[in-house]
Amino acid sequence: DQQLLQCMEDSFGKIQMEHKKFSHTLESIQADCQTKQKAIEMLFQSLERLKKEKVDEQNMLAAMDLKADKDALGSKVDCTQFEASMERLDERLCKMHGQVSGQKQHCNELQQKLKDMMENKLDRQELKYFQKRLENIWKRDMEELENRILGDSAAGTRK
Fold first, then answer.
1. Contact predicate 130/122, CB 8 Å
2. Cα–Cα distance between 44 and 105 in angstroms, integer?
3. What residue ranges do the domains of the chain occupy?
4. Whole-angstrom Cα distance, residue 70 to residue 75?
5. pLDDT at site 23
6. pTM
7. Cα(42)–Cα(94) distance, rounded to whole angstroms?
């Protein structure tokens, strides 16, 4: 009996040790499980946030096509050719600006001449005075001529 008791106590001690090991392992597994559960919840939240914020695939493809078009344009335009064209354009603009400036100066000169001519031109009052004076001189000369003609005799008229 004693041996049996001893054997049972040893078995019971072993079972208690294994129980402690299992309890400790179980606690460790539960802690890991809780940590993994929190990580899974965070992943689900991240997934939901990404679904809300994700870029529309078509928009992304369109943006990529646009970028590809811009890249292709960069290879099609030669920088030296572009700069040369811009220099020619600048020269043409300068030439046109000179022509416009010359025309403007010519217009200003013509405008000044017209202004001077208008200032020198007689106004209507001066013309009326001049017309009356000419008419008076004309009448006076005509009267003198008539007086000379009438003042002479008939024989003088024949002469």
1. yes
2. 79
3. 1-77, 78-123, 125-158
4. 9
5. 92
6. 0.31
7. 67
